[in-house]
Write a structure and sequence with these properties.
- With 165 residues, the chain is mainly beta.
- The chain is built from 2 helices and 11 strands; from the N terminus they run ββαβαββββββββ.
- The protein has one domain: Purple Acid Phosphatase, chain A, domain 2.
- Strands 1-5-6-7-9-8 form a 6-stranded mixed β-sheet, with no helix packed on it.
- The termini are far apart.
Length: 165
């Protein structure tokens, strides 16, 4: 378990996945002022992590497409305690192994946003923030943690920008 993040105050986390090596400047504007960034895999380049670290501390896991990059040195799963809540971060939901009592399960891979409660646990998939994949719109999410509760917010970055030749 990673050390706890944050004092007894509301915390705002930027949640992103499936950047596939592209850090969209629109995402950086949406994440301005966050206390930390959680990246749920398929980072695609160390430069993405570096760019996000310019905003706030980054906690990230590797995705299936990060294997060609030796996983960027990232773990497959990450368990965090933030604002008094337990979070489990993984790329593919099918690979999730959250410890008992996990409050929030964050994952990526499907390129589809999901924000719902199941069995008392918040499940959050920010969708895909990169230019590669079948999604037409780039998305992310924010997670607000306050008074021992988590609330997610879906974000639309904008139409998927095409790669330039």
């Amino acid at each position: 378990m990673t050390p706890a993040l944050g004092p007894d105050r509301p915390l705002l986390l930027g949640v992103v996945a499936d950047t596939h090596g592209y850090l969209d400047p629109r995402l950086l504007r949406l994440f301005a002022g966050v206390d930390a960034v959680l990246h749920a895999g398929d980072v695609g380049a160390a430069a993405v992590l570096k760019g996000l670290r310019a905003l706030a501390p980054v906690h990230a896991v590797r995705g299936n497409n990060d294997a060609a990059l030796d996983g960027l040195g990232l773990p497959e799963h990450l368990d965090l305690e933030i604002g008094g809540l337990s979070l489990h971060l993984v790329h593919e939901l099918a690979a999730a192994r959250p410890p008992a009592g996990t409050d929030v399960l964050i994952f990526g891979h499907s390129h589809r946003q999901l924000l719902e409660r199941r069995a008392g646990r918040l499940l959050l998939n920010p969708g895909a923030a990169g230019r590669r994949g079948f999604h037409a719109v780039q998305t992310a999410a924010r997670l607000r943690i306050e008074a021992g509760a988590a609330a997610g917010e879906r974000l639309v970055i904008g139409p998927r920008l095409e790669r330039r030749a």
